[in-house]
Amino acid sequence: MVPAARGAKGWKRKRKEEHPMSEREGHDAVKAEEEARLAETLGLVRAALGEAEALHGRIEDGYREAKRYQVAYRGEIDPAEAFQNELALAEVDRRAAQSHEAAAQLRKMLDAPYFARVDFAADGEGGPEAFYLGRFSFAAEGRTVVSDWRSPVAALFYEHDETGPAAYEAPSGRVEGFLSRKRQLGVERGELVYAADSASSVRDEVLARELGRDSDRKMRVIVASIQAEQNRIIRDEEPGTLVIQGVAGSGKTSIALHRVAYLLYRRRGELSSRHVALLSPNRVFADYIAGVLPELGEEPIEAFDLRGVVERALGGSVRVAPARSSVDAVDEAWRERARLKGTAAFADAVLAFLEQVPETAFAAEDLTFGRRTLDAAWIDVRFRAHGGLALEERLDLVAASVVYELESTSVGRDRHAVPTKREARRRLAGMLRAKDALSLYRFFMAEHGWDGALAIGSKRTVEWEDAAPLALLQGAFSGFERYDGVKHLVVDEMQDLTPVQHVLVARLFRCGRTVLGDCCQVVDDGNSATLEDVARAYGAARVVRLTRSYRSTSEIVALANRVKPAAGLEAVERHGEEPRIVGCADTAEVLARTLEAVRAFRASGRKTLGILHASDELAARYAELLSRDVDVHLLTERTETFEEGVSVASVKMAKGLEFDEVVVLDADERFFSTELERTLLYVAVTRALHRLTVLHRGRPSRFLAG
Ligand SMILES: Nc1ncnc2c1ncn2[C@@H]1O[C@H](COP(=O)(O)OP(=O)(O)OP(=O)(O)O)[C@@H](O)[C@H]1O
């Protein structure tokens, strides 16, 4: 084996060293080689697309013909034949969808069939082989032309900066060998834009190029520039729960979605998109990230929100009041109640209580039917025999035992006194100390001296903070309808869930999980969950940490670090304007400055501008005032889609999203003075990719000064 460029740093130097050519000639040779390869690949893709389209046309003709036959001979076809026809049509439908999907992928490949090349020689297998890596794999003429970014060999590209001895894990075992080339290839609209042999400097350049792009209304695919630390998370296949703690903009959400794509690829046949679900903070966020999996050639996954999950677990037994925000709510008593229920100690108390529910809630008594009595001890033993089941499920089983016992041991006249199972169940239910989960919850709160922290409104309406613990008790009382169809769950913005809410999610979704978020972005003082609390809620979860921030320019990251030094963001070298911090005399000036920023944004040709306020109510008020002059979208809990243009939102609603430019309103002591508000300001400034304007009235927030 003759390595092509052992240890070379970049293609220019490497070519120069190895060939007696000038740098220019080396460049031209690489360019010519890659252009020829690109032309060949595009030719093959075009041919495959032609075939796929022709096949699609034939399938559609066949479908139409079969339908026509069905209609024309409706009266004459017997039911068996009609059924056969339906099955055949369903199969044709499936093939049509597949061929449509294949054609769509091929069209995307015409734009950019691949983004990289690695030359690797496996030990003992002769000279190096070139692997081209793309978003989708592609085979033609009996060979692999492009390998999927998730294929085992592609790990070489993500894991190695330098050429040299290397290895990757294949299904058949570890493949050792020599990586002689790692080339980054920029292809846009079918044209080769750049070709550069990788070293860390090139990798950084490519990353900076990717990051410098404008944001979109949809989250982007990052396969061409996944970093080694991110790659390890994406390719982590250990069972159980993986918790990703990452600073703002560290790519957590992107990685989680690429990880789902990776798992779908690796476990094809066993895991499909139907088996993966996402627990997302709100609908706008779900819409924002919805495009990533389809862009990677996978079906979209189902998104749930926590409220939906909690209400389903409660099964309509109570009503749940809307969630309140600790930024807007001035009700100190409510804050106190919420704070209590957001602690890990509260979650622990609920868990301990769940363990004792059977003992607490059921007191066995003698049970008499006619002349026969089953004594309390007999009942108690049977009740306890069904550990792990919900109270009501146990009562069903004990009722069945009662009937069986009486039936099998009664003779003569006593047989008339044997109860039905329903009657036995009714009598056993009379031994419950609590008639439902809500009574149990009251009992639990009273037992801990927390009765004052329970505010139940009319028509059994409980506060949002009580809904999850109550749902856990509902599970202990009546049993849960679990999400058994879900084999992998992604929980995003983990810091939005309190410890007890995490415990509920862990019980409802008993499957592999990727849980991600940033415990530095808790924007609710009613939640004191730490990273350890989150990991504990899911049993023995593995925790990984990401500290590099990819989203914002170094200047914006520097400001974010001043606002919240504890976050410890590491910037990626990418420079832009200094953030502007502007004092305003009054609301009129805040509006005028904001409009100025909107006009500059419009002129820049960038795609998204976020105008953010600490408060939901004031965000709505500002949106109303601004909409007199410019088009703006207000993002609320009810918003369904994330649009290009100007969005106005509270910081809480903007979490997880990003904008090319951000204006933070009222960044002064009125809104940003407490520790919670420090976090809000941190979240707000870290939403910006390229430009940030911070407006304040009166004294600027102390956090802006560091
Ligand atoms: N390796 C990468 N290559 C290119 N872009 C990347 C990479 N990693 C992250 N990004 C970009 O960084 C931005 C932040 O990513 P993402 O939203 O996934 O981060 P996050 O950690 O979930 O952020 P937050 O917690 O602040 O919401 C996105 O624009 C994403 O495309």
Automatic annotation (TrEMBL):
GO terms for biological process: recombinational repair. Signal peptide: none annotated. ATP binds at G246, V247, A248, G249, S250, G251, K252, T253. Residues 1-29 are annotated as: Disordered. One of its GO terms (molecular function) is ATP binding. InterPro entries: DNA_helicase_UvrD/REP, P-loop_NTPase, UvrD-like_ATP-bd, UvrD-like_helicase_C. It comes from the Bacteria. Residues 225-553 form the UvrD-like helicase ATP-binding domain. Keywords: ATP-binding, Helicase, Hydrolase, Nucleotide-binding. Residues 17-29 have a biased composition (Basic and acidic residues). It holds the Pfam family UvrD_C_2. GO terms for cellular component: cytosol. PANTHER family: DNA HELICASE IV, UVRD / RECB / PCRA DNA HELICASE FAMILY MEMBER. This is Helicase. It comes from Gordonibacter pamelaeae.
